[in-house]
């Protein structure tokens, strides 16, 4: 008996139509993929060509600027110019944002740049400023340091000091750092900054004209002094380094408060007040102790 031949497959128009549909979609996707990069480059070139002009400095805004910026007229605008200089109005230009961040850090005034971003109204800068803490007298002029003893940009004249309104450190022996943002070598500046912080809440701090760090004892230890308008306070070793040689800083502050309350000034009216010993010693301008004994001089003040 002959085996029956199988029927030939019938043509299915629905399946053919579906295959052609998928083929068309694939072809379209391939065309988009192939043409995307040239189109992207063309779009970027078009946008860049229409935004080549530099960005105006007044469109740069610093977020959460410190209050001390007002002490330096025009300073904020100069920082705006630093940021704006490498930027263009091209919204796709990310490289110039990185250049602006680098330029801002190089000024020495910025500890960290979190981000610089474009907004609908301009450029926003999120950065952490270094805060000036003191003025340091130097042979080249007056310079600033921050709370960590890092050198800040600029050299100032004596006429600028009242405007700056910062504590003055004199008698620094170590060489100034070569660049802004670098720590001052040695122990003079850190010790003076610690003393400034120790006395920051005292009512007589306005009588202190300078922190002098020029003196050392015969063992090379720093002996600090508070320079007043007409006199001097011999403070002694830096805060935290007194024990067991001298009274601690809290005791010295109490003694100065007593002198201030009794005499109206921490220099006892233009004299030399020494709080680095076991009691308050008050000397005249020639360095001779007044009164029967130093202890009696202190007792009279209590």
- Care to count the β-strands? 11
* Distance linking N and C termini: 137 Å
Spatial strand sequence of the major β-sheet? 5-4-6-7-8-9-10-11
Biggest sheet record: 8 strands, mixed
How many helices? The count is: 7
Question: What is the CA-atom radius of gyration, in angstroms?
Answer: 36 Å
Unreliable residue runs: 30-36, 42-51, 286-302
List the secondary-structure elements in sequence, H or E: HEHHEEEEHEHEEEHEEH
Residue-averaged pLDDT: 82
Portion of residues within helices: 25-40%
* CA-based shape: elongated
**Secondary-structure content class:** alpha/beta
Strand coverage percent: 15-25%
Per-chain topology:
Elements lengths: L12 H37 L10 E3 L12 H10 L10 H12 L3 E10 L2 E8 L2 E7 L2 E6 L14 H4 L3 E3 L17 H11 L11 E7 L5 E6 L4 E5 L12 H15 L8 E3 L6 E3 L10 H8 L1
Parallel strand pairs: 1-3, 4-6, 6-7, 9-10
Antiparallel strand pairs: 2-3, 4-5, 7-8, 8-9, 10-11
Helix pairs in contact: 2-3
What do these coordinates show?
- Helix 5 (188-198) links the parallel strand 6 (168-170) and strand 7 (210-216).
- With 302 residues, this protein is α/β, with parallel strands linked by helices.
- The protein contains seven helices and eleven strands.
- 32% of the residues lie in helices and 20% in strands.
- The strands form two sheets. The chain has an eight-stranded mixed beta sheet with strand order 5-4-6-7-8-9-10-11.
- It has helices spanning 13-49, 75-84, 95-106, 161-164, 188-198, 249-263, 294-301, and strands at residues 60-62, 110-119, 122-129, 132-138, 141-146, 168-170, 210-216, 222-227, 232-236, 272-274, 281-283.
- The longest helix is centred in the N-terminal third of the chain and has 37 residues, at 13-49.
